[in-house]
UniProtKB/TrEMBL annotation:
The chain crosses the membrane at residues 20-41, 53-78, 90-113. One of its GO terms (cellular component) is plasma membrane. This is Cytochrome c nitrite reductase, NrfD subunit. The keyword Metal-binding does not apply. InterPro entries: Electron_transfer_protein, NrfD-like.
């Protein structure tokens, strides 16, 4: 099938569809919520910051969209049942592999913060 108009982000080697756009949107929500929680924690001298509802909401709003985004990425793979190989076998010359590694570090910090 040939198209009369150019389709952005679609080449024979690269296909970014709406799944990737939703994933990036969810990751933006997550990072914004976590940044707001950190800014609130640093700007207010709280006796017990872990019990503050604004900080707790920011951390939860940071982790839920991230988990949804990870699930979307797993199902976007050509063979989703082999996603665990990507999680433990890093290729340092691959942007996707580095993104997965940074994503895992980000989720680790979120889980430790909750």
């Amino acid at each position: 099938m040939t198209l009369d108009y150019p389709v952005p982000f679609h080449t024979p080697n690269l296909v970014w569809d709406s799944t990737i756009a939703i994933y990036l949107f969810l990751l933006g929500i997550s990072s914004g919520a976590v940044q707001l929680a950190i800014a609130f924690k640093r700007s207010h001298k709280l006796e017990n910051p872990s019990k503050n509802w604004i900080i707790r909401a920011g951390v939860i709003l940071g982790s839920v969209p991230t988990l949804i985004g990870l699930t979307l990425l797993i199902f976007h793979l050509a063979r989703p049942w082999t996603f665990w190989k990507l999680m433990f076998n890093y290729q340092f010359n691959s942007v996707m592999s580095m993104g997965v590694m940074l994503f895992q570090i980000y989720m680790l910090f979120l889980v430790l913060w909750v």
